[in-house]
Design brief:
It comes from Micromonospora musae. By secondary structure, the protein is of the alpha/beta class. It has one domain: TIM Barrel (Alpha-Beta Barrel), CATH 3.20.20.60. The chain is built from ten helices and ten strands. A five-stranded parallel sheet has the order 2-3-4-7-8. Helix 5 links the parallel strand 3 and strand 4. Helix 4 runs parallel beside helix 5. The longest helix has 18 residues.
Length: about 240
């Protein structure tokens, strides 16, 4: 699987037909999603953290890359990896480790420890350096955290998204954008738009209607599986 294959899945999509990417947290869940017919996968950092026994944002880089490698090795579809803020790695090392793990894409967020937004100009420059190192070998999904830890101003989200796209991002991801501002984002942002959904068909259909190019779920599928396991455990004990 190559980044070109993954990139093509985002291009020329008909309105209302987004790319839906489930988020595996281990090799077994990855295989289950592929067997269900999904053409690509996008790992969630929080879901992998939970599967490894860490709080979100606390997974050591070595363990995150190892988990991504196990997932990519287990399936024959493109895998994109959420590598948070890049773990402080220089762009060359970050790109090298992603490619070594078998990832064809990555999420890169623009906040620090889910609490403070990065300066957008500096972040765009960093993204440009990652793009220069990766060439066409990685699909870069630039997360915009305005609605997560910032002001919630749609104009800020659009401005950041435009900067990141100009720096070489293939897709932008205004995580937690409320439904009422998504039409504004869709008008203001050219190119692929990643939105986060909940794992219900109606929610996915609504994001498709609002203009999502791609829909991901963060750790919600892992949470669902964990909840089902807890219910099973309770029934067995009862």
């Amino acid at each position: 699987m190559t980044a070109a294959t993954f990139r093509a899945l985002h291009q020329n999509r008909a309105g209302g037909d987004p790319l839906v990417l489930p988020g595996p947290w281990d090799a077994a869940s990855a295989r289950a999603f592929v067997e269900a017919g999904y053409p690509a996968l996008a790992t969630p950092s929080a879901g992998i953290a939970a599967s490894l026994g860490y709080e979100d944002g606390s997974t050591p880089a070595d363990e995150m890359f190892a988990a991504v490698a196990r997932i990519a090795r287990a399936v024959a579809v493109p895998v994109s990896a959420d590598v948070e803020g890049g773990y402080g790695l220089p762009p060359r090392e970050l790109v090298g480790r992603l490619l070594e793990a078998g990832a064809v894409g990555c999420n890169l967020e623009d906040s620090v420890e889910h609490s403070t937004l990065n300066d957008p100009q500096r972040h765009a420059q960093w993204l440009a350096e990652v793009r220069a190192e990766a060439g066409d070998d990685l699909f870069i999904n630039a997360r915009v955290d305005t609605f997560l830890v910032g002001t919630g101003d749609p104009d800020d989200a659009v401005a950041r998204a435009r900067l990141y796209a100009a720096a070489g991002a293939d897709c932008v991801y205004p995580i937690m954008a409320p439904a009422e501002v998504i039409p504004l984002l869709r008008v203001g942002i050219e190119g692929p738009l990643n939105l986060v959904g909940t794992p219900e068909k109606e929610a996915v259909a609504e994001l498709a209607r609002l203009g999502a190019t791609r829909i991901t779920f963060g750790p919600q599928l892992q949470w669902h599986a964990q909840g089902a396991t807890a219910e099973l455990a309770a029934r067995l004990r009862g």
